[in-house]
Give the backbone structure.
Amino acid sequence: METVLNYNTQIIGAQTASVVHAADNLRRDIRKVCCETELPGSRILLEKSNGKKECFRILAREGILVIQASDELGFIYGIYEVSRTFLGVQAFWFWNDQKFEPGKEVRIPDDYQFRSKPFRVKYRGWFVNDEVLIHTWTVDRDKDKPWEMVFEALLRCGGNMVIPGTDKNARKYAGLASEMGLMITHHHAEPLGAEMFARAYPDLTASYDLYPEKFHGLWKEALERQKNKKVIWNLGFRGQGDKPFWEDDIRYRTEEACGKLMSELIKKQYDYVKEMDADAVCCSNLYGETMKLYKKGFLQLPDDVIKIWADNGYGKMVSRRQGNENPRVCALPEKKEEANGIYYHVSFYDLQAANHITMLPGRPEFVKRELMEVLEKGGDDFWIINCSNVKPHVYYLDFIARLWQKGDIRIERHRKEYVEKYYGSEGAGQIAERLKEYPQYAAAYGKEEDERAGEQFTNHVARILAAQYMKDHNKRSEELLWAAACETLEGQVRWYHGVCGDAAASYDEYLRKCMLTDAELAGTGRELFRDSIFLQARVHRLCFQGAYLLCKSLLEGFEGNYQGAFYLAGKARKEYLDANNALREREHGKWHGFYENECLTDIKQTAWVLQGLMSYLRTLGDGPHYYQWQREYLYPEKDRRVMLIMNMENHLCDDELFALMEAKLDEDGQLGGKRR
């Protein structure tokens, strides 16, 4: 008897809230793929079995499609496998705007059977971090819907845990994540998911020595609040924010003293957790200053606590760069017999050179090599991936999910499958080639393989240089020594000028390739290509060109040619405004407003800083009366030198003056006595 899924197929046997939620999603998927009909459909039966945890079996039996599992996640994964295999609904259907053409029904052979295999990584999930885009974005006027779609995509990827946002969002969305079947874990700066001391007690100094009972109270409150959820308890002790605690407490200045206090407090947190639940799973992040203390033997952890090692934010398993310090200490598990895991970034925010609204610039081969080494060294207990706002990072999230599922990946095959799944078969070869080339065009700002620039490099560094020029152009930027340890600000600008000029030319070539590919596409594949690879190529090209023109402006400023510097700063500003507009132009349909709160890289702020630079340069060259440049570009030659009255019109604002200069340059190619 053949099994037939159609519009009227019923799902029976779901008992827990999380399984019911997944079953409801499967009903939604069926009705996307199958047209309305009066014919009855086969049932889908959820049947309890004695198999391995998180595993499932799907079989067609006497006209019924049966999903067998021993636990909630087994059923959830089985439900989403039915959606993927028979309905074609992919893990990132929502984030990649997968289109569906409804058909009459889906027929399943009588002898169909599928049995899933255990996951290669035990605990695996995402940290929804730096989530400024989805924080303000709504779908169908529902502010929670984007978060639901994040959690659904994670489950479809085989994830079983999540840090459901940062700070307030983590507490707000923990309930939804838990209801959908995910375990909850915590930000490394928020042990046990407790409220930050500074928020609970804003008038008190955040010192454990002064207020131990208040810290204990916050930890106990967190345990009580989450006691009915499945939690992997993160233990630790950091300052009020993402920084070492001793920055807030001068009592602790030696590494030994800091490690001793952290060890004591982690043990106290551990004891609280175990008193509540003897079988509870605990973890602790060896991140930043914590790894340094651990490696030196100053930090002691209970034996069964999972040690979480971290990459540097750029995909390399070494300690992160903090300010100008970049020791690059190996951050890989040391003892395979212990429980180990990783915190890994496909998105990072560091006010330096990372990627947040564009893809990780590292090559897939590099990412695979790093993560395979993690597995080889025993880091297979816990993977938490910084997924940020999901949409810009879908390719690498899918890539890493394959690794946590199977423990290996064939890169070319995965890329081909990924493109065909979401972009379609038309032009798939070209799109796959553009995706392959994306990291090949990433600008190198250092000698290491992971020292490749995300879009923060062209925004934060640009703002650092512009701000330092306005503060004191006779002093170098101390904030930029991690990249350019030059003796002067002019030297730093010249270094940046070289990197950005080369990168702008390189991205010109890549953008032309993307334009040619776009011209040969049609339909949904073209739309997604414009929303993803093409958009990110445009952002990089425009921002690198803007940064390059900024450098030219500052170099003119060093020579005292303030009019030329003003003009070039205006040209740079236009590039950044165009980059911001490129993002906003891709806000079609449900994506309306998605980039509106782009406030971390904040391309529009870079344009704002350059507007300030223009005003500063105009003051240097045309102040304090601000009439000479206006006369030069507004008046004809016969009136320009007649000075009976300085000006007969209101003073032009910077934008109006820049527009006159731009028109003049377009006309004769001259500005301030120099050809550009």
Summary: Confidence is low (pLDDT under 50) at residues 672-676. The first strand starts at residue 3 and ends at 5. The chain has 22 helices and 17 strands.
